[in-house]
Design a protein that fits this description.
heterodimer, A: 209 residues, mainly alpha, 6 helices, B: 221 residues, elongated
């Protein structure tokens, strides 16, 4: 199969399967939030892939794999499509929990929020690990004479995690915290970074850096 | 094909049964397995309903069948994807057949455990204890039915059958939450479904707590 159909199918899988899983993230809060997340998750995956393309290609060259930026982007999109399909398969289970755990207006809302957060982190971690494992195999098949396929997949994973965490921060809210308005994006999506928020959480109260 | 022609290989030789999904006669075999799954759960539902009596006689078996069907639909996509990831050469219809076989074998074991569960449920007044007996019977039936999954994966040339454990975990968690959604399944009922959403662990803790309070009050008297 040529690269065109592979790219088309990867994009279709990211938009459809990623969108379905995205809906399962927002469905606990409200139907509107589910629709927003169904749009935002494919957007997160596609924008992460695009933003990282250049650096991914440079690392591929650095590790001795003869891949141009277009091939790197296709390889990343294929892995994201694979992860989206796995996530879509888990979405019915998570949707079921969305509809049966205490809702956002109940006194136990935060317990449900945290439990679902834990479940989604687990699902994304599992799908991501499977995609990484597949990507290593694809890269090894693509460049059989280069032993660094595993190393490149690990570097790409690190780059995608760092960038993906920030873009997902910009695209908040995902779950929609109980008590906060349902909205597509926060009022100022580029105010602060994911990493600054981690530092703020880790810093003892009353002290400044 | 008679029902016995499905039940016997299901217990003795699941691989032989799953082989039928590779050729003609798969639909008939699938139908028998679904009937077996429904029949076994219906029998066990009657035993569960006998604890509280009244409307639970008919409500519990119906809810059990509804819950089984919903769990199968919810967990089918993840089973299909995990089967594909394992490298097994099985299509959606073969995976659906394997799922039906898992549920049917589980139902056969549940029906087999029904007399034991009935003895316990008629002897106890505690909802939590009776619930624990039913939970143990259900988990035992799942462990017994897991064999179909591992045999199926091996039959369709999977590289590893470890994926079966991952799916069983998903199925058990979904089943536990489904039982909470369809509550009350064990105790007395004022309506078909209890209003309000709950997580299954919270439901268990509250049921055990309520039982212990009743038991302490009775001891005091």
């Amino acid at each position: 199969m040529g690269s065109g159909p592979v790219l088309g199918r990867s994009l279709a899988a990211i938009v459809l399967c990623g969108g379905f899983y995205g809906a399962s993230i927002g469905a606990w809060r409200a139907a509107e939030q589910a629709c927003y997340c169904a749009l935002k998750l494919p957007l997160l995956l596609l924008s992460t892939a695009l933003v990282c393309t250049l650096l991914n290609a440079l690392w591929a060259r650095r590790l001795g794999l003869d891949l141009n930026p277009g091939e790197c982007l296709r390889a990343v999109l294929l892995a994201f499509a694979f992860a989206s399909v796995v996530l879509a398969a888990l979405a019915p289970v998570l949707l079921f929990f969305d509809r049966t755990l205490p809702g956002p207006w109940s006194p136990a809302a935060w317990s449900s929020h945290n439990l679902l957060g834990f479940a989604h982190v687990g699902a994304v971690a599992a799908a991501g690990s499977l995609a990484l494992w597949r990507q290593r195999r694809w890269l090894a098949e693509l460049c059989p004479r280069t032993p660094a396929a595993g190393g490149l997949a690990a570097v790409w994973l690190a780059v995608h995690l760092i960038v993906g965490a920030q873009i997902s921060w910009n695209l908040r809210p995902w779950f929609g915290s109980p008590g906060l308005e349902v909205e597509f994006l926060r009022e100022d999506p580029f105010d602060g970074t994911f990493y600054e928020s981690l530092i703020r959480m880790a810093r003892p109260r009353g002290r400044t850096l | 094909m008679s029902p016995d022609a499905v039940l016997d290989p299901l217990l003795r030789d699941p691989t032989g049964l799953l082989r039928r999904f590779d050729g003609a006669g798969a639909a008939r075999c699938f139908g028998f397995l679904v009937l077996l799954a429904l029949g076994g759960h219906l029998v066990y539902g009657l035993v569960m309903g006998s604890f509280a009596g009244g409307m639970q006689w008919w409500a519990v078996p119906l809810k059990l069948l509804l819950g089984l069907a919903c769990c199968a639909v919810i967990c089918f996509p993840s089973l299909y994807i995990l089967v594909c990831l394992s490298g097994a050469h099985a299509g959606p219809s073969q995976v659906a057949g394997m799922l039906a076989a898992v549920l049917a074998l589980g139902a056969v074991f549940l029906a087999g455990a029904a007399p034991i569960a009935w003895v316990f449920s008629q002897s106890s007044n505690m909802v939590a204890f009776t619930g624990f007996v039913h939970l143990a019977a259900w988990l035992m039936s799942i462990v017994a039915a897991a064999r179909v999954l591992t045999r199926g994966l091996r039959h369709w040339r999977a590289r590893s059958s470890n994926w079966a454990a991952v799916w069983l975990l998903i199925f058990v968690v979904t089943g536990l939450q489904m039982a909470t959604v369809l509550r009350p399944l064990v105790g007395p009922a004022t309506g078909i479904l209890e209003p309000g959403r709950r997580f299954f662990l919270q439901n268990w803790v509250e049921t055990v707590d309520a039982d212990l309070r009743v038991s302490a009050r009775e001891d005091g008297e």
